[in-house]
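Model the whole thing, not chain by chain.
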Amino acid sequence: MKVIPIELDDRSYDIEIAQNSLSRIGVSLVSLGDVSRVVMITDENVEPLYSEEVSESIVERGLDVDVAVVPAGEESKSIESAYALWEQFLEIKIDRRSVVVALGGGVVGDLSGFVAATYARGIRFFQIPTTLLAQVDSSVGGKTAINLPNAKNMVGAFHQPCGVLVDPLVLKSLPEDQYRSGLGEVVKYGCSLDESFFRLLENNIQTINERSPEILTEIIARCCQLKAEIVSQDERETTGLRSLLNYGHTFGHALETASGYGRLLHGYGVALGSALCARLALRLSQQGDERFKEIDESWVMRQNDLIDKLGLPTSLSDLANLMDDKIDVSPKRLVDLMESDKKTEYGKLNFVLPTGLGKCALVRDVSVEDVVATLNNSF
Amino acid sequence: MKVIPIELDDRSYDIEIAQNSLSRIGVSLVSLGDVSRVVMITDENVEPLYSEEVSESIVERGLDVDVAVVPAGEESKSIESAYALWEQFLEIKIDRRSVVVALGGGVVGDLSGFVAATYARGIRFFQIPTTLLAQVDSSVGGKTAINLPNAKNMVGAFHQPCGVLVDPLVLKSLPEDQYRSGLGEVVKYGCSLDESFFRLLENNIQTINERSPEILTEIIARCCQLKAEIVSQDERETTGLRSLLNYGHTFGHALETASGYGRLLHGYGVALGSALCARLALRLSQQGDERFKEIDESWVMRQNDLIDKLGLPTSLSDLANLMDDKIDVSPKRLVDLMESDKKTEYGKLNFVLPTGLGKCALVRDVSVEDVVATLNNSF
């Protein structure tokens, strides 16, 4: 078992990563102390797989648990879903000493976290992420949110979980594309934050693609640790440090939106976004920008090679092959989308760009021309 | 001008109380630094009175401001109102560097605070409370909320304002019953927390009833200071200390609900609730409970006398006279309501009861019999 402590003053908690850990949730909840009752939120896909095991573990420890099941998919991150859950909480008498358990992927985690953050002005919530993406990303950092019809994650709160339990064995049941999507975020950590982790990934392609629980335990722990170090220093994204976690995301979000919500999985967008960031940094390097002097052709190829071997796209042509029908990923459309992203302040285009292997920086002065040229060269 | 600093680490802010201060909002907002734009939320009653003066002050300092007007009354503390505001924020491009200004009473403050707490995971908000109740209560402490159809304040967040500006002159335009309602909370502070403040109120009945700005400045400052001392020590209501602010509120909330949402003003419920708490404490004292040994008949009469001189109810008969039509305030109904209140933990009846003049304590073991007997004796 690996334990990653997340240091956030009185909001600190542990992430426990171990095979067969689902059945230990009851112990973890009781150890929180003073728990009146538990409500588990899960989705229609995860419920038949793991809900019973988790419920039994909770009941065995003498706690009452209700289960709320939401439809699978991004549509559940809506105000309507939140409203229904608040009403249900009231009905089953959830109080300030109750705990919300989120059993599922990012959608379930984000929705449950938001509902827990706002019910009775905030009650505890515990996460059991069941997708690789949620295990390496959304279970660390306390970001919770729902979507507005035209704006992803626009309504939310920072609300840290009181604990996180990760079982790499649940990834066995994950659909292939969702697993790859998680790897998109995994690669991001190596490329942008940790050279030794990048090498670890390069050296374990086969076991990663086979979903070996041993390598997954190692990978998840490393990703959580990397994210935890940044989040503890910039919990609410105020100093700019936390934005370094968004390597690949400015392009990624635009690609996701251009493809239609939920059609391009998040990690695919991040992987392709990372590849585009590398090309953009290379272009700036070739223009003589000193900040990117370590970025050359071979660096870009090496990152593309890793992304490619993990089954993820590195060019807009790859993206076109992935999607069944035509989508508009013209440079103009993508730039428009990036300009309306909530991370844009005072109308400037911001990117997290690589400055070397396992290093990156927030760059606030990227010109639209360089972005368009980079996109035009990546078909 | 009086300035009350609210000490809450990196969430600290000042409450400025001064006559004619509305026109200084522009200066206060600019001094926050890094403000992209401002959105003011107000209601249909307040908008024609003060919106223009506030807007002009903001525009004079070079900031853009949009105004959102919600219907006056408790119905605006709904998820539908919050949703409409989130959508409007998106449309007018409110970003993380924008500031929400709440110009109005408790409803506007609670709703605006909740919307600000959750838009883009939390943006700044500034309060200009225009009712006495909001000036002495909801503008301190960071509690924000909306209602569910059957549960007041059930969805919300702790979100501290970045500043509060109080102009006692705006109270000149407040309807009589709303002014009295504010005095209900004012009396609460004196009775439960500060003997010298209680005496100050006793000695200034006439100027208080005349709404003299000088005495109001003093009163508002004292109330904010008393609340601030408690909130700084127990921001999120976890230690029990903050519950001392709820003197009169257990009865008060039940009375409000029994009368129908919004028909009995909050401060009237608190005033009558305070009178009932005094009678309950007297009963326990007469049973030999040592905790209430300082509470005797004369103490109860003295509190009733002050409440009465401020035009507020001290008995269920007074309440019946206030309401146009019949309401069910039978002891059974009130006890049922108190048992379903969210402050009830593990099904026990909790009250904040007086232990002397300007002193109170959270009492967790009050029997239903004593509550019923107290209610029966107060018709």
